[in-house]
Amino acid sequence: TKTINLKNRPKGKPELSDFDFTTSEVPELKDGEILLKTTYVSVDPYLRGRMSDAESYIEPFELNEPIVSGCVAEVLESKSSNFSSGDFVTGMLEWKEKQVVNAENFRKVDPDQAPLSAYLGILGMTGLTAYFGLTDIGKPKEGETLLVSGAAGAVGTVVGQIGKILGMHVVGIAGTDEKIEMIKSEFGYDEGINYKTTENMAQAIAKACPDGVDVYYDNVGGEISEAVLFNINKFSRTVVCGAISVYNNTELPKSTSVQPFLIKKSSSMQGFVIFDYKDRHPEGIEQLADWLQKGKLHYEETIQEGFDNIPQAFLDLFEGKNKGKMLVKI
Ligand code: NDP
């Protein structure tokens, strides 16, 4: 079976040459194990962090070992009483066409309840990140203004919709006019700002958020987030979810000092990782599934095809080639 390994730790922007392909035999099944065939692979910005050997909340990938990410797979054979062949499961899998795993670490998913890909997006890590980040850390209130960076991506499209469900004025920042059009027409955003064609971001944010920003849901960090600081309201909250604009930096950035802004506005900034909410995942999934079923939430996916295209799909995240959740169908 084919496997994709980390060949080099990327320097700056990752490249195709940082990955390599090997083949290996699939071992015999033992008791409690299942043989899986990968169906969908999630590629995520946070994998960039695991490709470095810097200390983080999650261990780095080993060189010449397979990359691991969230996947949906089909059970081909089972020696576990919990699964039968033909079932579909989700969990963390190596980037392999087929593999044998301990059944304990996997959850069955029902293709009749939602399309299989949804379990890696709106009903998976992406949806949960949007939901807990906004509701728990953002502490949103009806009538407030929510600003979202990375607004057309997997997490951002969900955050904006939840903001609208909660009765907020919602403004998004994204990198193309087409994405701005999409977040407004498909995801209910009231206003959008294309950061690639806007000269003065602080001014553009002031215009789109005439009452200032109460909650800033930050997926990108860097200069965009610095411009937001000029527009935060008294007692505002910044949800530090991601910082994709600096993941490939090789030097420490010359950063704006955020403290004076936060002091002046009694404003808070809090980071989080979705694993912090592990015990509350079922509650989050239940809420997201309910909104989805009632037609209050929609989702967008960019699906690339073919096992060999997984590394390219990952690289494309840093070029903004996705709308909504980026996935690879095998
Ligand atoms: P996205 O679907 O949002 O994909 C990444 C998007 O980031 C691209 O489409 C691109 O859109 C934008 N982007 C890329 N480079 C830059 C840049 N230099 N400046 C500004 N925008 C850029 O990914 P996810 O929704 O999966 O993740 C969004 C963020 O949330 C990431 O930072 C990720 O690390 C974080 N995250 C955090 C979690 C947590 O537990 N804290 C869990 C999951 C995700 P555009 O065209 O608009 O530039």
TrEMBL record:
Recorded superkingdom: Bacteria
EC numbers, comma separated: 1.-.-.-
Domain Enoyl reductase (ER) span(s) in chain numbering: 14-328
Keyword set includes Oxidoreductase: yes
Pfam families named among the record's database cross-references: ADH_N_2, ADH_zinc_N
GO molecular function annotation: oxidoreductase activity
Record keywords: Oxidoreductase
Name this protein carries in UniProt: NADP-dependent oxidoreductase
